[in-house]
Structure formats: C-alpha cells, structure tokens
Amino acid sequence: MSIFKSIVTASVVSLACSGTVFAAGKHLTVLIVTGQNNHDWVRSTPIIERLLEETDRFDVSVSTSPSKDSPDDAWNDWAPQFKNYDVVLSDYNGKMWPDPVKRDFVSYVSGGGHVVLVHAANNAFGGWSEFEEMTGLLWRGPDGGDRLYLDEKEQLVRQPKGEGPGGGHGAGHPYAITTRDDQNPIFKDLPKVWMHVSDELYHAQRGPAKDVHILATAFSSKESGGTGVHEPMVWWIPYGKGKVITLVPGHLGTNDKYPTTYDCTGFRTVLQRSVEWVATDKVTIPRPKNFPDADKTSVVPEAVK
C-alpha cells in the first residue's frame, strides 16, 4: 500500500486506538495547557476556551505554567492532572516541562488520552523524543527528521532528513485549505476547498513522520515566500491507545487586529470539531451556515470575539 493511501484510508481506525468513546450528549472535559508561547497566548487561550464552551459540548479548565524565569519551586508545584480530562489541548510553546509532568503526559496519551496541538504548540520541546513521535511533524530544521508534502500532482512525497528546507512560513496571507480525507467526520460535510483568513502557512515541518494521517493541506505559494507545494495543515497520529491531532493554522500575534485567525468561521469550526473527534471518533457539532467556500473567507462579527 502506498504511503499516501495508507495515511488517508487509515484515518478511520478501530476504537481501541482512541480510548473511551463517549455518549454524544455527554460534556467532554478539556484541559487547556498554556502559560508560555512565542504568540499571544494571553489572548488566544481565553478565545479557545470560549470557542469550546459555546458549543455546549465541553467543560473546559485551564492550567497555566509558571513563567520561564520562575524559581524551581514554582515548577515543582505545577502538576497538571492530565488523567482527569478527556482531552488535553496545548496552547503552549516554551520551556521544557519538568520530568514528572513529561512522564504524566506520555502516560496519559499512551494509556488512551487525547491531545490537540494548536499552531506553535507543535514547535515545542525539541529533543523530547516521545513528544516528537506523537506529533509526527514539527517546526524543526532540515536535520530534524523527514518531511511530508503533496507535489504538483497531489501525490504524497516523503523528503528524507537533511534534504530540502526546514520548518518555516512565508508572509501571512489568506489561503485555501483543501480536505484530503473526506471520510473523517471533522471534514466530511465541509467544502472540499475553503478560504482561510490571513494566517501563517507553515511549511516543511519535520519529524519522525510515522503513522501520519493527513486530513487537510494548503498550497504554499512561492509568491508568498512558501515552498510551491501542498503542505499539511491538519493531521493526526495514533500513540499507544491514544491519539494526537495537530492544527497548524492558528497564528495570533500581539499586535494582530480583527479579523484574526480566531475570527475565521472555518478555523473555529475545525478547532471545535477536532477536540470532539479526537476523543470520540465522532462529530456532533454542526457546520455553520456561513462556513467559507472556495472563493471567499467568512468571519464572525467583531463583537463575537
């Protein structure tokens, strides 16, 4: 079986790979881990919290790490209780977590936990092998592992470690997101192609790239400073009995004004649905009537932020 075929067809997996399946009406518990990021986590974390709670599908808690320069005592006292949650969503990109927190996180995922990584959260923790394996593709240099992309014929290419560019992005701009697995419930009833608002388009993500199931891509144009190929935008990986889904759209800078990524109806919907799907293998959150199409973006009114 080809790499691309195995990636796409394997997106419907046995329930054993996703841990407990919850009843459709049950609120899922979500822990957002935050506190450090090279983006404006002070703004993005509350937005994500509101986005999830507005669906009436999730009960959300937030665990904020100590600051980078906090004393050891503060870090020793920080102990997120991952095991108590159906989903852990990371809005974190900063100092390496203490060893006990790392062990608890790996135990959580391998034991059947569910993780969502948003934007720069996949940049984190260089050298933490378990995190890199469960994430698959990360912001790393050319020597940080293999790269996956779709060529001009939309065929999957695996570029070996050390060849080609490392992780980066061109200038922020609106771009089209294309579904690559229309059987996955997150994307099943969405347009094949839809326009996302101005955002960073990550390219040449690197890593172990094992068992990567690509759900959506975007064309990284050379005119915008990109690579000229279709880059993965949303993917997931089974890890032990759990699974991890990564959404690389989601930039929010300190000076970004409305409309931002988090005002995009398409991104908001995919984020909400990803959190539900990663825990249940199902999606009950409906597609909004104003979902974007291939020709134009769609944003919520500024007052909704």
UniProtKB/TrEMBL annotation:
Key words of the record: Signal
UniProt xrefs under Pfam families: ThuA
Superkingdom of the source species: Bacteria
Endpoints of the signal sequence: 1-23
Domain ThuA-like: 30-278
Membrane-spanning intervals of the chain: none
PANTHER family per UniProt: GALACTOSE-BINDING DOMAIN-LIKE SUPERFAMILY PROTEIN, SECRETED GLYCOSYL HYDROLASE
Protein name: ThuA domain-containing protein
Protein source organism: Luteolibacter soli
